[in-house]
């Protein structure tokens, strides 16, 4: 059905092009008398381009009493024919349809970047049933099914790799240009492409719950027709139709020249006014799409343009959302920081705790091989005990050391406290019954966050940090990002309260978050922006805009784009109104005839469409290069 709808849509555009080509040729034949015909060639343009306009106007009036541009255009067409101005009637119809085609093409181009996602939906999947492999439609895959993905195939559903190693092109979901290596235990997303090796996976999210389907639902909800300012333009168009009729009748009665009255009807058509807003919004949506945003609500960009305060959740938004080893310190001269790191990674090798896994992962990222422990014991709520390299190793919290008779000296506690106050979580390491050092872990700040906050400030928008984290952690992040207003320890209702307080003070607020706990705040804010990659389904559904690839560095561009869009709309409206009134004065005084009036008026529509289309390629000018990296805990740069 979707393919049929698309075929009909593009078939309609091709039909418009054919009609315009034939009509244009007919108008040339008419004005230059190029071929002897038993009738005026302009009638070809009237029939091919004018009849559809008249039919739409009649249907709108009869079914919904909808008075819009088509009504005035139809009156102008009929009046021109009555007074014998066949060429003017054909020209009006031709240029009106040309303007409509330009609008369709502008909208189609704006949506092109979004609709590419729909084509990424995999059609089939290889399901394994024992040793048997069966190819079935992707929508029939169930949670728990074991699938096999071959090189070059698109992953059909979300899942976890069971066996095999490969590289995945995740550009559609994350925007990464290089493939990402994957192995057993790694998660993969539907719509991404398997580059090299084959692998088996277990389906975890299928059908409408898969990543690619979630993105498609966001795409389908993008609708510029919801913008409030579009409704305003429509209301203006209705009044303009009534005003045009009155002006035409009065001019006819006063001057006695029906030609002037018809010219007024021709130039008074509010086409440029009606096109001014939707074309700008759709072009801006297309621009936002190419920068990783999916706009779910048509008026979201309009509301975003008036935002004066932007509130951020911390985890997963300003930070990566995963713990990283940011510093290693040794208490004893016989152990280097490298030794502490190596022993800790060996002890945590078999740990299932997220912090333990983070230690092993970060150690491996340095290109180091983790030593397998000879013995391992998990101590719930405390840490781990292991034997590796002939040493007895403890890795965990202070309670673990105290309960095992390993005292921490005051100097060690003071050194550790500097990292705790900076928002870090510590894993203490003891070797052979003696405190040896610690590892500091923190939710790593996104590299682009400092530059993004700076650019937001340059736009005159005040950033605010709303987080459920400890005050120390929030203060450390705020200090690095130069965010002065910080509210820590916030529950969902606290975030709602703060946003409501700002709104009561007359400020428009934008909220950016990723978790389930952010969903109420995303709904409460004037504009909610969800992290589409790491964000929860509930947060994405609650937001007006989704940032698909989680590249927060693009947020200043979106904010600036919304303001540029509103400027374009105001310029379009002012230009169209000014041109209309100028043309009316010239028509009343008899300077313009219907033919020239049609050219002037419809040229205005083309100018509005072209001006809106410029938003597709608009980019915010950057004053300075962005910061490339940041420090999450003290002395991180000196670590190892």
Automatic annotation (TrEMBL):
Gene3D superfamilies: Calcium-transporting ATPase, cytoplasmic domain N (3.40.1110.10), Calcium-transporting ATPase, cytoplasmic transduction domain A (2.70.150.10), HAD superfamily/HAD-like (3.40.50.1000). GO terms for cellular component: plasma membrane. It is a multi-pass membrane protein. It is an enzyme of class 7 (translocase). GO terms for biological process: copper ion transport. It holds the Pfam family Hydrolase. Residues 120-220 form the P-type ATPase A domain. PROSITE patterns: ATPASE_E1_E2. The chain crosses the membrane at residues 12-35, 41-65, 236-255, 261-286, 573-592, 598-618. GO terms for molecular function: ATP binding; ATP hydrolysis activity; metal ion binding; P-type cadmium transporter activity. Keywords: ATP-binding, Cadmium, Cell membrane, Copper, Copper transport, Ion transport, Membrane, Metal-binding, Nucleotide-binding, Translocase, Transmembrane, Transmembrane helix, Transport. It catalyses: Cd(2+)(in) + ATP + H2O = Cd(2+)(out) + ADP + phosphate + H(+). Its EC number is 7.2.2.21. It is found in: Cell membrane. Its main location: membrane. Belongs to the cation transport ATPase (P-type) (TC 3.A.3) family. Type IB subfamily. NCBIfam families: ATPase-IB1_Cu, ATPase-IB_hvy, ATPase_P-type. This is Cd(2+)-exporting ATPase. It comes from Candidatus Scatomonas pullistercoris. The lineage of its organism: Bacteria, Bacillati, Bacillota, Clostridia, Lachnospirales.
